[in-house]
Amino acid sequence: MQYQDNFNPTISDEDVFGQIVKEKELIGYYNLASCDTSAYKEYASSVKQKNIVVMGIGGSTLGTYAIYKFLKHSKKLSKKLYFLETTDPIDIKSKIERIDLNDALFIVISKSGTTVETISIFKYINSLIKCDKHNTLVITESDSKLNAYAKANDIKSFDIPKNVGGRFSVFSAVGLVPLSIVGIDIDKILAGTKEVHDSFFAQGETYSRVVKKARFFVENKSCFNINVVFSYSSRLEGFNKWYIQLWGESLGKIDVDGTKQGLTPIGIIGPIDQHSFLQLIVEGRRDKTLSVIKVEHFDNNLVIPQIKLEGLEELDYLDNIEFSSLINKQADATIECINNLQDIPCDVMTIDSVSEKSIASLMYEYELLTSVCAKFMYIDAYNQPGVEAGKIILKQKLKTAK
Amino acid sequence: MQYQDNFNPTISDEDVFGQIVKEKELIGYYNLASCDTSAYKEYASSVKQKNIVVMGIGGSTLGTYAIYKFLKHSKKLSKKLYFLETTDPIDIKSKIERIDLNDALFIVISKSGTTVETISIFKYINSLIKCDKHNTLVITESDSKLNAYAKANDIKSFDIPKNVGGRFSVFSAVGLVPLSIVGIDIDKILAGTKEVHDSFFAQGETYSRVVKKARFFVENKSCFNINVVFSYSSRLEGFNKWYIQLWGESLGKIDVDGTKQGLTPIGIIGPIDQHSFLQLIVEGRRDKTLSVIKVEHFDNNLVIPQIKLEGLEELDYLDNIEFSSLINKQADATIECINNLQDIPCDVMTIDSVSEKSIASLMYEYELLTSVCAKFMYIDAYNQPGVEAGKIILKQKLKTAK
Question: Between chains, do A309 and B149 touch, taking CB under 8 Å as contact?
Answer without folding.
Answer: yes
